[in-house]
Design a protein that fits this description.
The protein is mainly alpha-helical. It has 18 helices and no strands.
Length: 460
């Protein structure tokens, strides 16, 4: 074989390997997405869990003031946008599984967009890219959450990822599409909860820098009003942050964890990005998170001194997101207890870290680091799946027993006391019973099977 033929054969083999790698990555994404949707549709029931019960009066048309419900404070959170999305979905489908499916489709879309963006940036796929769907769609991250809690996380997570995609795709917001999309996200973030508020304030310097760059525009293709528009959107976002905190009450529902350093709590919070099993070995988790954060900031500091022009704006965008996600980690880590969606809230920090290494670390170091992140997720996966299996057994047995009791005519007050720990921990049984009655009257899920005069067995 001649040298030109050998070179052509090697190039063909490389292209074949790249195509095979991309196929494996996208097949993994498709399998995780399909498994998640199948689990909800086939194994789930239209039964509210935890925060879902707060929306039952509005869903069944018995809420006195829907606007007040959307703006009401829960702990440190005001989440009018996620609540509006959840209520709209429940109003259309009358099934709590529909809201869960919507949240999972959102997470799947985010994983797909991030995969496409990173592969476009790199020019090829790597097996380590499986980290994106593995962190976002792993059942241990979402299976314990009610529909409301899952959408409460999926919406701000989606907005954060859109900012990240804008930083990757158009770091100076030169194109109209990314300028409009980023501006809209900047206004929506404060309406999506405390995480959105933090990221909106963190992203504001990058968007403001892009606006200043385009005032006056250096590029003839950029409209004259691009700069003032971006700066106005930054000011509008800051105003919405002020409105968010106006009238807020101290967070008594989820108090600050006493006796432990905030940095330690933040590191443990970040470790849950690979799943709840990460907390089983806190010392190891702390060491790995601390090393990862320190090394990533070294990479970013090195990049900041070397990049120029458009790449400098991209580096600024990555840095401000890292700062914002660090503040978010401290805010969430210092709260007592871990909710069912804590792991998902920590995922954006891992995604930004992955991309920072892809952009600014030497090629071989980036490959090794990304592979280590995937290895950590895979090592934790069996323990996470065991925990998920235990929860699915509890869920299946308890919801089946609840459905039988409902069909058997057990009164709502008795059901509320019997299943309060599973349905809504710490709930007032009388309030829980009244909301069960609302679901029964509206023929929602198994509650519509209640034996009452003139009733018929309906719903799942």
């Amino acid at each position: 074989m001649s040298l030109p033929q050998a070179g052509a054969a090697r190039r063909s083999a490389v292209r074949g390997m790249r195509s095979a790698t991309a196929l494996v990555v996208w097949l993994g994404w498709a399998l995780l997405t399909g498994a998640a949707i199948r689990t909800v549709v086939r194994e789930g029931r239209s039964i509210p869990l935890e925060s879902d019960w707060n929306l039952v009066p509005a869903m069944t048309g018995h809420a006195a003031a829907v606007g007040e419900l959307l703006w009401s404070q829960s702990g440190a959170e005001r989440q009018p946008l996620p609540r509006l999305v959840t209520l709209g979905t429940l109003g259309v489908f009358r099934d709590f599984r529909a809201a869960t499916v919507l949240a999972l489709l959102t997470l799947a879309a985010l994983a797909a967009m991030l995969l496409a963006a990173v592969q476009r940036l790199r020019g090829a796929a790597r097996l380590s890219d499986l980290l994106f769907p593995l962190l976002l769609l792993q059942p241990a991250q979402w299976a314990r959450a009610g529909a409301t809690d899952l959408i409460d996380v999926a919406i701000p997570l989606a907005l954060i990822c859109v900012v990240l995609l804008a930083v990757l795709s158009d770091p100076v917001l030169r194109t109209r599409r990314w300028a409009v999309l980023t501006g809209a996200v900047l206004l929506l973030l404060p309406l999506s909860g405390l995480a959105g508020v933090i990221i909106a304030l963190a992203a504001a310097p990058w968007v403001g820098a892009c606006g200043w760059r385009h005032w006056p525009p250096r590029d003839a293709s950029v409209p004259r009003l691009r700069g003032p528009s971006l700066l106005s959107l930054v000011m509008g976002s800051v105003v919405l942050v002020g409105i968010y905190f106006s009238g807020c009450q101290p967070d008594a529902w989820n108090a600050v964890s006493p006796g432990t350093p905030p940095i330690r709590d933040a590191a443990l919070f970040l470790s849950r990005a690979v799943g709840p099993a990460a907390t089983a070995r806190p010392v190891l988790a702390l060491a790995l998170v601390a090393g990862t954060v320190a090394a990533t900031w070294i990479v970013l500091a090195r990049a900041w001194t070397r990049v120029t022009d458009d790449e400098g704006y991209r580096a600024l965008g990555v840095i401000v997101l890292m700062v914002g996600l660090g503040v978010m980690a401290v805010a969430w880590g210092t709260r007592t207890g871990a909710s069912s969606t804590t792991g998902l809230m920590a995922v954006p920090a891992v995604l930004v870290t992955y991309i920072a290494w892809e952009l600014y670390a030497p090629a071989m170091l980036a490959v090794g680091f990304e592979s280590l992140l995937l290895a950590a997720a895979l090592i934790a996966l069996p323990a996470n799946l065991r925990q998920d299996g235990e929860w699915r057994t509890i869920y299946r047995d308890t919801t089946s027993a609840l459905a039988r009791d409902i069909s058997g005519g057990v009164p709502w007050p008795v059901l509320a006391v019997r299943y309060e720990t599973f349905l809504e921990r710490g709930a007032d049984p009388r309030q829980l019973a009244s909301r069960m009655a609302l679901l029964g009257a509206a023929r929602v899920g198994p509650f519509g099977r209640a034996v009452r005069p003139g009733s018929e067995a309906t719903g799942r």
